[in-house]
Amino acid sequence: MKATVLAHPNIALVKYWGKRDDALILPHQSSLSLTLSPLSVTTTVEFGVPTDAVELNGHVAKGSERERVLRLLESVRAQAGDKSLGPAKVVSRGDFPMAAGLASSAAGFAALAVAGRAAAGLPRDTKAESILARLGSGSACRSVQGGFCEWQRGERPDGDDSFAVQRFDAAHWPELRMVVAILDRGEKDVKSRDGMKQAVETSPYYAAWVKDAEAEVPRAREHIARRDLQALGELCERNAWRMHSTSLAAEPPLCYLNAATVGLIHHLREHRKKGVPVWFTLDAGPNPVLLTDAANEVAAEALARACGALDVIRCVPGGDATLKSEHLF
Ligand code: PMV
User: Fold this and answer.
1) For helices 63-80 and 126-136, what crossing angle results, to 10°?
2) Same domain, 92 and 152
3) 12 and 148 share a domain?
4) What is the mean pLDDT of residues 170-177?
5) Do residues 151 and 185 share a domain?
6) Where is the Diphosphomevalonate decarboxylase-like N-terminal domain (predicted)?
7) 113 has pLDDT over 60
8) CB-side neighbour CA atoms (13 Å) of 129
9) C-alpha to C-alpha distance for 137 and 308, rounded to whole angstroms
10) Residue 260: which CATH number?
C-alpha cells in the first residue's frame, strides 16, 4: 500500500506550448525532451490512511496544488478498479528550485504517477504511467522514462493515445551536457499553464507555432540519432525563440526573459563565434539551459557565471523513474 519513486525533470528540446483540452491536458503539438540527472524529485504515496494529506517540499499543499495531486490519485483508483483503496498520504521532496522555469512539476507528477500505481498494487506500465503523469502536468508524461522522450500529441478526444515514448535511452549520448544557469531564484509571475492558455487564445502566431513545432520533432529525432550537437543546438534555440515569440505576441504580451537572460544569450553567441559549441533553450522562466558536450561543460559554466548566474547545475542525460525501497515517511 506504500511506494516511493525517484524521477528526474526533463528539458524540452522541442517545447510543448498550448493545450487543445485543458481538463485532460492534451497538447496541440508533439514535443521532445531530454531527462536530466542528477536533479530529482522523490515521492512516497500510501493508500489506506485516515484522511487525504499532501505535503510538497515540507509544506502542506493547498488549493489547486492539492487538488491536482488528489485528482491524479483518483485516476489511479479508477485504473486499479478499486474504490476501497481509501484516502492517500503523499510526501514529495525535490532537490532543485521549484517554479523557476525548470520542470520541477514534471519530475513531481511523474514520480507521483509511478508511485501511485505501485502503491495501488498495479504493475509497471510506462504508457499508463505517462498518461497518468500527463493529467498532473503535461510535461510530466516525458519524465516517466529516461533519455530522449517524445510526447505524441495523439488524436483521440479521450487522450489514450497522448503519452510519451522513449526514442533513445540515456546511454545513447553520454557526452551530451545540459548546464542549467540559475539567473533568478524567484517564482515566475505567470505559470506555464496560464501563459500557454494566453498564447493559444490571443497570439496571432499560435497556429504557425503548432505547425512548425510538430515538423521539428522528427528533425530533432534525426539529429539525436546522429549525435549531431550543432544541428540539435540550432534546432533547440530556434524552437525556444519561436515559443517565446508566440507568447510575446499574446495579449497581454508575455515575456519570460529578464535582462540577465538576454545578456547571457548575447554572450553565448560571442562564445560560439570563438568556436565554443554551446546553445541554449528556455522554458517558461528566465533561467536558460545550455546545451553542450562534456569537453565544453566547464566553459559553459564559466559563461553562465560571468553572466551573473547565482547557481549553475551541470546535468547529464538521466534515467527512468525508479522505485525505491526507502520511504519518505
Ligand atoms: O507541463 P507544464 O504545464 O509545466 O508546461 C511545460 C511547458 C514548458 O516547460 C515551457 C515546455 C515543455 O515542453 O516542457
Assistant:
1) 150
2) yes
3) yes
4) 98
5) no
6) 7-164
7) yes
8) 32
9) 30
10) 3.30.70.890
Domain stops at, among 133, 148, 169: 169
| Beta carbons of 237 and 280 less than 8 angstroms apart | yes
In a domain, 328, yes or no: no
Q: What is the pLDDT of residue 95?
A: 86
30 lines ligand 1 (CB under 6 A): no
For the cut 70, the answer to whether the pLDDT of residue 99 exceeds it is: no
**Binding site membership of 297 for ligand 1 (Cβ less than 6 Å):** no
Q: Per the domain annotation, does 323 fall within a domain?
A: no
Q: Give me the mean pLDDT over the 262-280 stretch.
A: 97
Query: Best of 14, 15, 142, 149 to mutate for ligand 1, by most ligand atoms within 8 A of CB?
Result: 15
CA distances from 148 to 10, 54, 181, 220 (A): 9, 30, 21, 10
Kind of pairing between the strands at 164-168 and 148-151: antiparallel
137 CA closest ligand 1 atom index: 1
Distance CA 55, CA 90 (A): 6
- Decide: 191 in ligand 1 pocket, CB within 6 A: no
Average pLDDT over residues 195-205: 98
Q: Is the pLDDT of residue 30 over 90?
A: yes
Q: Evaluate whether residue 292 is within a structural domain.
A: yes
Question: How many independent structural domains does the chain possess?
Answer: 2
**To test the ligand 1 pocket, which listed residue (192, 210, 217, 281) has its Cβ within 8 A of the most ligand atoms?**
192
Q: Which structural domain, as residue segments, surrounds residue 10?
A: 2-169
C-beta 284 within 6 A of ligand 1: yes
User: Could you tell which of 16, 22, 141 is best to mutate to test the pocket of ligand 1, judged by most ligand atoms within 8 Å of the CB?
Assistant: 16
Give the Å distance between the CA of 103 and the centre of ligand 1: 7
Same domain, 154 and 226: no
- Per the listing, cell 522523490 goes with 42
Is 139 near ligand 1, meaning CB less than 6 Å away? Answer: yes
pLDDT band at 68 (very low <50, low <70, confident <90, very high): very high
Is 283's C-beta closer than 6 angstroms to any atom of ligand 1? Answer: yes
Ligand 1 centroid–CA 226 distance in Å is 26
Residue given cell 503539438 in the structure block: 29
